[in-house]
């Protein structure tokens, strides 16, 4: 009997730790290294297996810093995010464990409850067997500790249901605020467990009901704060989407205005010729030179059949020529694209802006941007490549070896790429960013029907 209960107890702790770890993964990114994931799994199992007696401060005070240290080592994100998430989950498990080990166990397996069992079932052989089996402290704690498993399962399912997007982000100031809000319910749990000293060795749950209410308040408060993380993440995402939409709208309006000016200037070319013929000889040369230097007269504006793409490429090519950047464009879009004009403008403009910014860090001889765009067979594709200015070069007597960039968070760098990622996700597309052989490459595709 005891051996089977111990096996059940160990299995429940392992499953509970696994569920807690995966519940955490919805709110904080866990390291992909196998050793660190195993270390976090060990920490979650330790958290779930720890017995929390009211009046015995050792377990809770020893486990809390150990678990927080494991979170700092095994999870990604800012310091305040890791500390806050660690305190939220440890406080949730500790408050339930305190209820389980002091109230649920004692209600089911205490001597007083055994007497109630005898009164209910009668003083017969069956009632004596029930009482003798469950009054044993070791058996009682082994059985009651398995209640952590359904609690961990409920916490995991709730966290998965309300979890924010995987790449959500909150500012450090917001995490510090959540940290301060978490301290209060966690402090209630610590105060109940560490400051109370029972008069006798036996903790009477029927006398000290107030501690159960305090632990319940702390438990629901911390769970509410976990839900607040999701609410704040979604609110921040809505604010970012609104900001990106406004930026994209203004960007598109600027592109349209410049393209309109270009069309107007071309339309007025005949008037310029008339003015040129009427000017005196000494002014004619300077006027002609001014017209010749205008980028409007030296560019092709019909890259494809989509006016928005034409407007963006026209303006961006003018910028590149002023910056001495060579643009190699291959555009095959036979009909207007079905996307919102501001989104389409943002895709091209932000990607080209990032490429121009990278090229400006290079010598003029290496400033080159390759753009390939095509629409057909149900997909719209865009690929933009440029030399990576952040590569490390190692010279050898006979060759130059170019290694990939050392920037670890290239695909998260800048609001431009965040805007591109948000648009691609909204249209159910895919975005790939990589650096290979010293070339930075951005590739995306969107379905033409969505």
Q: Strands, helices and their partners?
A:
Layout: H1 2-25, H2 34-49, H3 58-74, H4 79-109, H5 111-121, H6 125-134, H7 137-144, H8 148-162, H9 172-195, H10 209-267, H11 269-278, H12 281-293, H13 307-322, E1 326-332, H14 341-359, E2 368-376, E3 379-387, E4 392-395, E5 400-403, H15 415-426, E6 430-436, E7 439-447
Beta-strand fraction estimate = 5-15%
> What's the helical proportion of residues?
55-70%
Q: Which radius of gyration do the C-alpha atoms yield?
A: 33 Å
Distance between the termini: 60 Å
Main β sheet profile:
5 strands, mixed
What class would the helix/strand composition place it in? alpha+beta
Average residue pLDDT: 79
What is the 3D shape? Answer: elongated
Number of domain units: 3
State the order of secondary-structure elements, H for helix, E for strand: HHHHHHHHHHHHHEHEEEEHEE
Annotation field: number of helices: 15
Strand order of the main beta sheet, please? Answer: 1-2-3-7-6
Model regions low in confidence, pLDDT < 50 over at least 5 residues: 112-136, 392-413
Query: How many E-type strands?
Result: 7
Overview of the structural elements:
- With 450 residues, the protein is α+β, with helices and mostly antiparallel strands.
- It folds into three domains: 2-242, no CATH class; 268-297, no CATH class; 299-447, 2-Layer Sandwich (Heat Shock Protein 90), CATH 3.30.565.10.
- Helix content is 63%, strand content 11%.
- It has helices spanning 2-25, 34-49, 58-74, 79-109, 111-121, 125-134, 137-144, 148-162, 172-195, 209-267, 269-278, 281-293, 307-322, 341-359, 415-426; strands spanning 326-332, 368-376, 379-387, 392-395, 400-403, 430-436, 439-447.
- The strands form two sheets. Strands 1-2-3-7-6 form a five-stranded mixed β-sheet.
- α3 packs antiparallel against α4, α4 crosses α5 (111-121) and α14 packs antiparallel against α15 (415-426).
- The radius of gyration is 33 Å and the shape is elongated.
């Amino acid at each position: 009997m005891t051996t089977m209960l111990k096996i059940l107890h160990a299995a429940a702790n392992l499953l509970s730790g696994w569920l807690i770890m995966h519940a955490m993964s919805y709110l904080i990114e866990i390291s992909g290294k196998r050793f660190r994931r195993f270390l976090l799994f060990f920490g979650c199992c330790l958290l779930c297996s720890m017995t929390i007696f009211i009046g015995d401060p050792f377990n809770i005070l020893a486990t809390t810093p150990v678990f927080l240290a494991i979170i700092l080592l095994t999870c990604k994100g800012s310091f305040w995010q890791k500390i806050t998430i660690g305190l939220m989950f440890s406080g949730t498990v500790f408050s339930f464990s305190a209820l389980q080990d002091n109230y649920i166990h004692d209600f089911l397996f205490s001597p007083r409850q055994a007497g109630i069992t005898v009164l209910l079932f009668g003083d017969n052989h069956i009632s004596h067997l029930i009482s003798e089996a469950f009054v044993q402290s070791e058996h009682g704690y082994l059985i009651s500790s398995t209640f952590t498993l359904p609690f961990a399962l409920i916490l995991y399912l709730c966290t998965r249901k309300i979890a924010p997007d995987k790449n959500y982000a909150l500012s450090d100031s917001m995490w510090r605020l959540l940290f301060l809000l978490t301290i209060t319910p966690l402090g209630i749990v610590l105060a109940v467990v560490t400051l109370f000293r029972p008069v006798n060795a036996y903790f009477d749950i029927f006398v000290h009901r107030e501690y159960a209410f305090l632990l319940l308040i702390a438990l629901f408060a911390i769970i509410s704060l976990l839900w607040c993380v999701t609410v704040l993440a979604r609110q921040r995402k809505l604010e970012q989407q609104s900001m990106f939409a406004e930026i994209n709208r203004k960007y598109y309006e600027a592109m349209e205005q410049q393209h309109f000016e270009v069309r107007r200037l071309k339309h007025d070319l005949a008037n310029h010729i008339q003015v040129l013929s009427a000017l005196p000889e000494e002014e004619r040369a300077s006027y002609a030179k001014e017209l010749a230097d205008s980028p409007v007269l030296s560019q092709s504006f019909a890259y494809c059949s989509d006016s928005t793409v034409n407007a963006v490429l026209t303006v961006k090519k003018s910028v590149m020529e002023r910056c001495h950047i060579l643009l190699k464009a291959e555009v095959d879009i036979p009909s207007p694209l079905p996307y919102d004009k501001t989104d389409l403008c943002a895709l091209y403009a932000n990607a080209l802006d990032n490429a121009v910014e990278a090229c400006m860090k290079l010598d003029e001889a290496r400033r080159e941007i390759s753009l390939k765009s095509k629409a057909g067979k149900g997909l719209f594709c865009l690929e933009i490549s440029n030399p990576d200015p952040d590569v490390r070069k190692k010279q050898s007597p006979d060759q130059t070896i170019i290694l990939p960039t050392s920037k670890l968070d290239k695909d998260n760098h800048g609001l431009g790429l965040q805007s591109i990622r948000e648009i691609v996700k909204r249209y159910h597309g895919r975005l790939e960013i990589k650096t290979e052989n010293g070339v930075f490459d951005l590739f995306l595709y969107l379905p033409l029907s969505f």
